[in-house]
Structures are given as C-alpha cells and as structure tokens.
Amino acid sequence: MVLATLAAGAFAQEAAPAKDAEPSDDSTIVVTASRIASRGFKAPTPTSTIGALEIAQNAQPNVFTTIAQLPSLQGSSGVATNTFSTSSGQQGLSSFALRGLGVSRTLTLLDGQRVVPANIGTGAVDVSLLPQLLIKRVDVVNGGASASWGSDAVGGVVNFVTDTRFEGFKANIALGQTTYGDDKQGVIQVAFGKSFLNDRLHTATALEYHREQGIEAGDFGENAANGRTWYRSSTLVNTGITNNGLPQFRNVDHAQSYTYSKYGLITAGPLQGIAFDQNGNPTNFVYGSNGVPQKDAAGTVAGCYIGFCVGGDTSANVGIGATLQSGINRQNFYNRTSYDIDDNNEVYFTINLAKVGTHNQPNPGTTQAGLTIQCANPYVPQIISQACTTNNITSFKLGTVTPFLPNIRVNTERTQERFVVGANGKFNLFNTDWSYNTYYQHGKETSDIKVRNLLLKARFTAAINAVLLNGAIVCADPVARANGCQPINVIGNQKPSASALAYLQPAVGAFQHTIQTQDVASFNVSGEPFSLWAGPVSVAFGAEYRREAYKAVADPYGNGSSSPYTAEYPADPLLSTGGGNFYAGNYRNGRGSYNVKEAFLEFNIPLINSEAAGVVNLNTAGRATDYSTSGRVNAWKVGLTWDTPFDGIRVRTVQSQDVRAPNLNDLFGPIVSTNLPNFTNPFTNSTLTVSQNQGSNPNLKPEIAKNLSFGVVLANPKWLPGFNASIDYYKIELTDAISGGPNATQLVQYCFDGSVPSACSTFNLTGANPYVNVGSINAASIKTSGVDYEFSYRYARPLGLPGELILRALATNVRDFTTIPGLPGTIPSQTAGQNSGATPDWKGQFIQTYTTEKYTLTLQERWFSDGVIGNQYVVCRSGCPVSTSNNPTLDNNTMKGATYIDLGGTYNIRKGVAAYFKVDNLFNVDPEPSPQTNTGLDVNPALYDTLGRFYRIGLRLNF
C-alpha cells in the first residue's frame, strides 16, 4: 500500500512521466525552466522531471546515478570516472553534464538556490553532498536558462526540489554488491518531520550514511579485478608509414610496450632484449609480433610498431591497474526549520553538513622507461656486467614498472557546510497579489587531497645509481648520501628496505588543502499586475549578489619553497625549489575571489486565447550581470508556447543567450613560473628573458552561448488518455569558449599577426619584469545540435489485470558536436557518435512499471548506439590515401554500443513497510574497448558499465 500511495502522490503532483511536468491550470508552481509563478503557466523550455517514485524504483544509493541516466545528460562525473587521476581532485565527484558540454556548463540547484562548488577545477557541485531522502522531484531543464538562473546554465539546469513540509518518519536501508563480490555497499537514510505551535512551527531532518568499498585495481598485465575478463590492452598502434596504401594505425588487442617489462628490460644498445625475472635473473624478453631487437641506440624493434608489439609478454601492462570504481564514504545531515508568520508568509532556516571521502589507485607501480643503469652498479648481475665489458659499454638503458614499490593511493575528502536563512510568502500591493522568496546562503567547502606512496623523482634517480664504498652498497652521489639517500635495486622484484622506501616515498606524500566559500543574497518577486485581451500578464523580477572565494595550500615538494619546509618536508638540495618534485600529483598554492551583481526581469504575455486559434503565450526574460573580474554581460530569452485548437497538441520554441563565467580556477588557479631565456619579441625583433606563467588567466571573459529549441508536445489527448509525448530540436552555439592555450611563443605571435586578438591580453614584454601568461584563453567555439524524444503512457488494468502499467521512453539523438579550437593551424573536430567520448549518436532510456497495491515491478533498458573511436580517422584496409595528422588512416574505427537491462521490484509487507530488490546490468554486459594510442585503461567509464551485474536489496519505512 505504501508504494501505491507514493505512486499516486508522485504522479499526481509532479506528472513525472510527462516531459513538461507542468501544473494544472488551477495550481501555482514555480517551474524550474522559469521564474514565473502563475496559474497554468507553461514554460517553453523542455524540462524532464524525475519524481520521488522513480527515484525510489531505481534504488540507487546516490540519486546522482538515477538522474545521470537521462539521455540528455552526457559526460557526467561519477564514482566510476576519474579513477585514473592523481591530482584532479575529482575522484568520486558526482556532478552533472548536460548536452556533453561538461560539468562546468551545467547549473545544479537545491530548491532553486545555488550550492557552493565542491571542486576548484570544475566549479561543479557534488550531488552526493545534498540531502537525498527528502527529495520530492528533480527538474532537468534541457536548454539554456541563464536569463532565469544566471551563470553556468548553458547546457541547462538540474534542480533538486525537496519536501519542505514533510511530516512523519521514513527510512531506507539497503545493501548491495556486484556479481564479482566487490563494491560491497550499504546505505542508511532516515528522515522525520513534525509541526508544533498549531502547525506554525515546522521542522524536518534527514540523516544519511552511505559506504561503498569500491572496486580494487587489477594488477599488471591483463587481469582485471576479481575475475573480470574483458580487459585486453586494446591499442591503436602506429606503423609509422603514411603513404604505402595501408592504414597508418591499426586497432589491435594485447598490445605490449617494448620500452619496459615488469621486472626490468634492457631497451637499447648491444644488450637490448635482455629482461629479468622477479629474482633478477637474466632472460630473453618475449616480443610480440615476432619482433627482433635491433640492438641500436634508438632501441628499434623490427617487426613491431612504434613503441609496441602485439602479444608476447604483456605482464607489464599497467592499464587495468587503475581502480574501476572509487571507494566512497558519505555522511549527511540536513535540517529545515520554518515558522509561519501568518497563513501566507514563512521564514525558514536550513543547515546541510555533509562529508564525502573517496580513495582510488590511479595505476600500479610507476612506469620508468629509459633509466640509465651503470654496468658497475653492484646490483647488476655478474653475467650482465661481463656482457657490458664484452660489448665495450659502461651503462645501459632499462625500463621497468617498479612492481617492488607500494602502489599510489589517492585519498580525497570533501566537507560541505551550508547555511540558508530565507522567507517565502505572498502580499498584496496595488490590488495585485504577489509571491516572493528571498534568502541568504553561506556555503563553505573544504577539500583535502592526500596522495600516498609517491616517488620523489630526483631521489629515485639518485637511489638507483648505486656504488660500492668501503664494501657497502651506497648511493653514488655524496650530496644525496648526506641527505639520507638509500640505494635500491630496480632489477627484478627486490623489496626496498623501510628506510629506502621512506626516502623515496615520504609517508606524508603530496597534499592540497582547499577552502572555497560562496555567499549569495537573493530576492525574487512574481505576480500578475494587469491583464490584456488574452488574459493576465505574469511578471517575475529580482536581484542577486554572489561572492565566491578560495584558498589552496599545498606541500612544499609539489608547490616549491614558497610553502615553508617542515620536519615532514625538510629541505633537500636534490629537490627543485620551484616544486614539481613528485612523480605525479604536484599541487600548488593559490587564492582568488570575485563577486557578481545581477538583476533579472521576466514576462509571460498571453497573446491569443480563443477556441478557434488556441492559446499563445510569449515568455521573455533578461538578466544583466556585472562581474568584478570581467564587467557586464547580458543573458536573455524569448519563447513562445501555442496550445493549438487540436486536442492535446502544443507547440513551443525558445531562443536564448546564455553565459558561463570563468570560475575561480580559470581566473586565479595556481601558477607555475619558468624563465625562458632568448625569447624573441616580434614587435621589436629582439631577444629577452621572460617569465612564463603557466596556469590561470585573470583576463578571461564569460563564454556566450546561443540556444535554440523547437518542439511539439502531445499532452493527454482525449482520444488516448494517459498518453504524453514530446519531440524537441535543440541547437547550441558557444563562442569565446575557455580552453587550454598555446605556448608563450605562439601567444605572442598570435597577437603580433592579429590572428587571435585576445592573446594580446596575456603578456607584457616591457618593463623590468616581462612575462607571458600561458593558460586558458577565450578562443574556442562549440556547436551542437540534436533531437530529444520523450513518450509516456499510463494504462489502468492492463489486459484486465489489477493495478496500473506505466511506460516511459526518453531518447536523445546528437546530430552534431563540433569543437573549433580557434587557433591558427588547428581544424574543427566532430565528436558526435564518438563512443570514446560523451556524445553517442543515440542514447535512450526505456522504463516499464507495473504497480498494484501489493507489489511493483520495474524493467528498465539503458541503451546507446554503435559509434566510432574518433571521427578524424579515415577507415581503410588497402588503397588508403596518404595519412595526415588531421586525418590519419585506421583499419578499424568501430565501437559497439550497449544495452543494459535493469530489473527491480517492491513488495509491500504491511502498511508503511516495503521490501525491494534491484539488479542492474542483469545480463552482465561487458564494456567495449576504447583503444587509444597507449595501453591505458582502454574503456570509457563515462559511457560504458565497467562494474558488471549489480545486486541490491533494501527496506523502506514510511509512517
């Protein structure tokens, strides 16, 4: 009975299967696609709504997963992405991306309010830090909404709407794991609400604890974690031949680098091809492709490709050694307390305290190619020393993946403190009823990233150069010895001593401590001040002030000596005072802030209201925004809706200009400075020494996007009650896109020849301290277009059976996604249909739910179409044209799509108590390889399921 009641409530209030999710004509609701609050208002911007029932049916411990499955969401960041990253801080970050435009161009709101970003690099909100059990619905606005909501709403808006008047008690308890017995997880969610003082004082609280073990990394070679068999080192190998009628690149499995082996491989010179086993004994390396080492200084291997062979000894491949899913530990506390001043006005206070901790392994060991090993090194086997003498050499090149070193571990912790005080209500002015809402929010996000088991590069170089001194093996460099250097043996799998490991991999590792703050003050009013011939005119207006700031502090080995040395990070003459000393994860200090002042005005104007012509409404809005960093920018929209005289048919269209302002990292991110001597100044034809400042660019300006959508809606026609459908075409053109910039020489040249005028703001070659800021610039543009489809149908007593059948289908067809770098010598790239990225040609979601008073069954299909590795490739097997860098030739450019089938069900044990189960990826469909030109983790976790079949069981209480 509980689920049946939930179902009735969810669909009646939110119209979840219908794309518009609009209220009935006699209700008043703020639709996320607009700021208008008016009876019967229909926003022209397409909006998909996921109700509480659908969230419950999908049975995910994090609501992010449910929303990210919508076809219009492409390239979102989750716990299965960024696991191969060491320093991004995005591990376990649950952030949305609409239209494949990236997480920084999608605005995430909570009850229509901004939330402090959780990552300095992206400026994105971490959804896992939001209260989840009190979510009433989620509105996904599939189109630009900057005129209504401000910066970042280029791809659209995802708004979490909570039940602000919840009363009673409910809970959710669930357990789950994969079919491989890993990623074991548990979640406990509790919410309770109560009214006091004759229902004038109301409080609701939600508590949540969620833990996932994650999926451990595989080892070296091709063995994925816990029996997964799909990894096969798929790689695009380069023949190096561009004009012989055969493809330059070949798509192969079981690629094997010949620049290293698991326990050490001599890679060049007369001893090339000698490998070592785990005990350090010499053996002949097994090259794939019948490769024959040429024993030259370049390390050439005949019969193989550039850098790779196929088959042979693949035991040193490191790609599968990245964590498939980050482990995560989530805790959340949320409370909203409100007091009704009278029947029409309330004041409220909310607090959200949440913490997310994640951990991952980006790779096993550390790949070391081209190490120089002296033949006199006492760790070199005697037979190799003799071979050195025979061949008249004193050293050789060695490649290894250092299996004897502890694997890198990245620990990330994000803590959110969010406080909101506000008021909502109604008042009458000049005989007009007005609605208002106002709030002040203070948000603080603390992020700590700690990377353990990281090599210090200079110390590793010193430690592997060992000599005999007074009968003892020591580091050859006396300066290194004086500062604690302990020699190590990189031949074989000999574990270093504890003191040697402490020297190579300091226990404290790399770290960055970042604090971001966001303060927002907002006031909005909506009403119907007058009427025209076709009905009342609705208006909404308001103003907002926002300030964002951050400060990051990093370790001195990564940042450089500007961070003070401590007992844990003592000064070492071997290490660079400029930082960048770790093998990876070199963090930097940084700080910055900006403020924003904005005001908006929106109208809904009825133009026609007649039985013969239907109902036509004009919806228009404008927003003026003043950034302290880049000045003023405007956003606007103009939309039309036409409820035609034909039963249930509505036409809608909207054109908008939307903005995405540069975030704190874009503007004030950490800077790495390098001196460039003999730099040519083309303006004076002279040379000088300049400081190249690599990093952010404080002169960036907002990105500008033009959004267009046009669609047709069929809403509950009399001839087919319960049926809803919509088809919407969209087109987005983003200009002045912020992207990685060229080097210092190129930037100055672009300004000199006028090819990129914005480059002129990145340098100053005069004065006592000439510099060039090498970072992001406003040069690129993106064009994307496609069609969204959504259909739903509710059918009571299907085939005469009791209960109700609910069908829903959503699909997005991406027809174009073109990125134009905007720099001289570059060409546009087309990524629509590129399954190695985020925008397949087609992405669909199909849901069938049969519900009765006693039980509910749900079947879901998640599907995306076949695609390609890259659209730049020319596919051929013979008779190939000349291969170029822009259009290389390739023998196989296909990537299969996938269909994942999920099955779930709920059984109502008694009133208020329901048990449920869920099986995701029922048929355990393996991911398709996404081969690159290296042997990394060659799958695309942003699109493909890398976990496999997943089982969940749980219990819900609702009293």
Blueprint of the fold:
Blueprint: H1 2-14, E1 28-30, E2 37-39, E3 47-51, H2 52-58, H3 63-68, E4 106-110, E5 113-114, E6 135-141, H4 146-149, E7 156-162, E8 168-178, E9 185-196, E10 201-212, E11 235-238, E12 249-252, E13 255-257, E14 265-266, E15 274-276, E16 282-284, E17 292-293, E18 301-302, E19 308-310, E20 327-342, E21 345-360, E22 368-374, H5 382-390, E23 395-400, E24 409-429, E25 432-452, H6 457-464, E26 466-469, E27 472-475, H7 478-482, H8 498-504, E28 510-532, E29 535-554, H9 556-559, E30 590-610, E31 614-627, E32 631-643, E33 649-660, H10 664-668, E34 672-681, E35 686-695, E36 703-715, E37 723-739, H11 744-753, E38 763-764, E39 771-775, E40 777-796, E41 804-820, E42 829-830, E43 842-851, E44 855-864, E45 867-868, E46 874-875, E47 889-890, E48 894-895, E49 898-910, E50 913-920, E51 950-958
Parallel strand pairs: 4-7, 35-39, 46-47
Antiparallel strand pairs: 1-2, 3-6, 4-5, 6-7, 8-9, 8-51, 9-10, 10-20, 11-12, 13-19, 14-23, 15-16, 17-18, 20-21, 21-24, 22-23, 24-25, 25-28, 26-27, 28-29, 29-30, 30-31, 31-32, 32-33, 33-36, 34-35, 36-37, 37-40, 38-39, 40-41, 41-42, 41-43, 43-44, 44-49, 45-48, 49-50, 50-51
Main location: membrane
Subcellular location: Cell outer membrane
Domain TonB-dependent receptor-like beta-barrel: 414-922
